[in-house]
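Fold these two proteins, one after the other.
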Amino acid sequence: MIKAKKSLGQNFLIDDKILEKIVDLIDIKDKTILEVGPGTGNLTSLILKKKPKKFFVVEKDDRLVSYLQKKFQDQVIIINDDILNINEKKFSQDKLIVYGNLPYNISTEILCKWIINLNTNNFWFQNLILMFQKEVAERIIASVNTSNYGRLAILAKWKLDIKKICDVKPSSFSPKPKIESSLLFFTPKTKFFKINKPKNIELITRLFFNHRRKMIKKPFNQLFKGKMEIQKKLKLNLNLRPQNLDFVTYYNLVKEYEDLRG
């Protein structure tokens, strides 16, 4: 059996019950599938049984690519590359269903890349079904006024509805990670706040949450140079902390910032 590489954040999912739960979440017959980080192909095998129309897998590890080629032959199209280097829109004209037991060390980077590249409402995916470290998942689904609420939740919930499916014990993986994981299910929203440049959400939330325990007065003034008409328009209390502002307030801040810059 191939050993997982710690440097690539590999933890192979081996729990049959969890694997079956993942593959039974939605009907994928005749759908086009993308699996990120298939590992030794445990989930890949179950997906194939559901008879997808086309099946792409992205695997960075050369050893695993060779293993998967022998195991699946021409049943899957294997891309030997880093998912962060890939333009997912080039896979297919179909909307993809994406599965991923994401490498823990780059999971947030992958998700942020996908969201930031959604600069229109023409989504390249139908659903994302992704595994994260539990603590990262809690940050993705966090609500306003909670300790986990921050940049990641504000970005993720901009264009996506997110549902937590279940927590997954370390014993479900090989090798066992030291922490629990969580499975999240993402669906594109049909209506969402219009922002011209998604990277501005990152810019503004970074500015505010860099000092999450301090009042928002300082980052607000940095952004808007003391333009109090914007404060009045958004009915902002500048004595609040960053975690006290709801999602829509942040999106409105981005819009005002973009309008100011023309």
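Now the second one:
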Amino acid sequence: MNLYEHTIIARQDTSPSEIKQLTEKYSKIVEKNDGEVIKTENWGLLNLSYLIKKNKKGSYIHFKIKGKGNVIDELEKNEAIDKKLLRYLTVKVKKFDLEKNYFGNKEDSEKKESAKN
């Protein structure tokens, strides 16, 4: 089984309920193809480096997926025709970093670090 980190960017006018639907939709596609979603992170609405289809911002959703290559093929095939998505990216990794939350609140991560010490 391979390990993948997969990120999708939804349009800036996508509502929170639609974001949840997108997350569920792509999680189900992974599970149908004998894959497993290890972790899902909603990074929220972030600024884009440049305009993509007249959007300045995008809602980022990040998946950590365990599965075979056909899982990613099926995901990307469905994402290519989804009008709510601006971009998607898949990276194959050797292991997951499940500890660090890169896009969480800085205050939350500081509290956790001070609690450890």
